[in-house]
UniProtKB/TrEMBL annotation:
<keyword id="KW-0548">Nucleotidyltransferase</keyword>
<dbReference type="GO" id="GO:0008270">
    <property type="term" value="F:zinc ion binding"/>
</dbReference>
<feature type="domain" description="Galactose-1-phosphate uridyl transferase N-terminal">
    <location>
        <begin position="73"/>
        <end position="239"/>
    </location>
</feature>
<keyword id="KW-0119">Carbohydrate metabolism</keyword>
<dbReference type="GO" id="GO:0005737">
    <property type="term" value="C:cytoplasm"/>
</dbReference>
<dbReference type="InterPro" id="IPR001937">
    <property type="entry name" value="GalP_UDPtransf1"/>
</dbReference>
<keyword id="KW-0808">Transferase</keyword>
<keyword id="KW-0299">Galactose metabolism</keyword>
<dbReference type="Pfam" id="PF01087">
    <property type="entry name" value="GalP_UDP_transf"/>
</dbReference>
<comment type="similarity">
    <text>Belongs to the galactose-1-phosphate uridylyltransferase type 1 family.</text>
</comment>
<dbReference type="GO" id="GO:0008108">
    <property type="term" value="F:UDP-glucose:hexose-1-phosphate uridylyltransferase activity"/>
</dbReference>
<dbReference type="Pfam" id="PF02744">
    <property type="entry name" value="GalP_UDP_tr_C"/>
</dbReference>
<dbReference type="InterPro" id="IPR036265">
    <property type="entry name" value="HIT-like_sf"/>
</dbReference>
<dbReference type="InterPro" id="IPR005849">
    <property type="entry name" value="GalP_Utransf_N"/>
</dbReference>
<keyword id="KW-0862">Zinc</keyword>
<feature type="domain" description="Galactose-1-phosphate uridyl transferase C-terminal">
    <location>
        <begin position="248"/>
        <end position="386"/>
    </location>
</feature>
<protein>
    <recommendedName>
        <fullName>Galactose-1-phosphate uridylyltransferase</fullName>
        <ecNumber>2.7.7.12</ecNumber>
    </recommendedName>
</protein>
């Protein structure tokens, strides 16, 4: 396995996963994570040359008058009412879409390369892969060489501040089968995905200027997914995102008041209450939070105090793959469509990790927040005036009813 400055593979990854780095033709970083034995032992090797002739990603371009125009680094502005930084990523308007009525792409850029296929703008150089990770071609945040990370006023007013959105956006493809579902992947493949999460968390956390590593998965057209291929993303923010900032305020205040860890105490209280616990194994517990907002919502925590994904040990990574597999399968069966087959559930899986530098992270704890917009087999929960306008949630069900439905779908104990 290639040596990396900050990622330290455990015993399983050293023996069963091979990470091969390369660079795409426009300069973006790309990584193969192989779990197939022939690639792990080196009997087979990956295609490392991107056959596309793409211009350097930060190269200037010509305007309508034939003049060189520098690469337009994405910017972000600070909302003075909330303190939130808002990245403004105009380049994303040109990204390919392969799903829904607004589809623009003639092929799937996340699929393995198909020699002879009319579509030859895929991001994967090889004709097959296990798991791959690469920098997003249409990032909402990116560190541009030579662009100083300076804060300036907008329109000459100190009310509005602007600086480069100098983060990083990556894509993780879970499997080469572009028509597959994450819920159908074998646990062994999800174990490789978990390793990819840990690998990228460790490496991204060491990049200057990044404050939070956010691993997440959007799944389903209703969520707004533009590419149907089974994949996830990683955003490395140059700030602490508003949701995590709110959680840090509460976890820090709780620690100052009680000396305890709020997330750990919530987990223990849910275990003691029992009613909302839906799954557990030797390393993890999953429960419906007592104040759940969404019609389907689950929080997953490790039993051991762990702050970030790269701190998980081998057994915890295996147990996570097992639980995540069951969570996706049971999520797909949650709503009864009348034929006993369930549905392809639209969901968001959001990993909340301790921030990179903020000292409040010492009293934080790794957790997964898994939720769906769907409130019935044929209905979506729309965020209307109260939720969107005031962030004042109105739930369409109760946490106990959500947990009861999960209890109908499978045993709590996975061991």
């Amino acid at each position: 396995m290639s040596q990396f400055a900050h990622y330290q593979p455990g015993e399983y990854a050293q023996e069963h996963i091979r990470i091969t780095p390369t660079t795409l033709s426009d300069g973006r970083e790309f990584f193969y994570l192989d779990d197939e034995p022939d690639y792990v032992c080196g009997k087979k090797t990956r295609q490392l040359v991107d056959p596309r002739d793409l211009p350097y990603r930060f190269a200037p371009h010509l305007d309508a008058d034939g003049n060189d125009v520098p690469y337009a680094a994405p910017q972000m502005r600070r909302d003075p009412l909330t303190g939130d930084w808002i990245p403004m990523a105009t380049a994303r308007m040109n990204r390919p879409i392969t799903i829904g009525p607004g589809a623009t792409a003639t092929g799937n850029p996340l699929a393995a390369r198909k020699p002879g296929d009319p579509y030859q703008d895929g991001e994967v150089p090889d004709t097959d892969y296990d798991v791959v990770v690469f920098e997003n071609r249409f990032p909402s945040m990116v560190q541009v060489p030579g662009v100083p990370n300076e804060t300036v006023d907008v329109d000459g007013s100190p009310l509005w501040l602007q600086r480069p959105a100098s983060g990083r956006c990556e894509v993780i493809c879970f499997d080469p089968n572009e028509h597959g579902l994450p819920a159908d992947l074998p646990v062994e493949r999800l174990r490789t995905v978990v390793e990819a999460w840990a690998f990228r968390t460790a490496e991204l956390s060491a990049i200057d200027g990044l404050e939070q590593v956010y691993v997440f998965e959007n799944h389903g057209q209703e969520i707004g997914v533009s590419l149907a291929h089974p994949h996830g993303q990683i955003y490395a923010y140059p700030f602490i995102a508003p949701k995590l900032e709110q959680e840090l305020k509460h976890t820090e205040a709780y620690h100052e008041r009680t000396g305890g860890n709020l997330l750990a105490d919530i987990m223990r209280a849910e275990i003691d209450a029992g009613e909302r616990v839906i799954m557990r194994n030797g390393s993890w517990v999953a429960y419906v939070p007592a104040a759940a907002r969404w019609p389907l919502e689950v929080q997953v925590q490790p039993l051991r105090d762990v702050r970030t994904l790269d701190e998980l040990n081998d057994q915890e990574r295996w147990d996570l793959a097992q639980m995540y597999s069951q969570l996706l399968k049971r999520g797909n069966m949650f709503f009864d469509t009348g034929d006993g087959k369930g549905m392809d559930l639209p969901y968001i899986a959001a990993w909340h990790q301790a921030p990179v530098h903020d000292p409040r992270g010492e009293h934080y704890r790794l957790n997964l927040q898994f939720f769906s917009f769907r409130r019935a087999a044929n209905k979506i929960k729309y965020l209307a005036g109260s939720e969107s306008g005031m962030a004042a949630w109105v739930s369409d069900t109760t946490p106990e009813l959500i947990a009861q439905r999960f209890h109908e779908l499978g045993a709590v104990d996975l061991d």
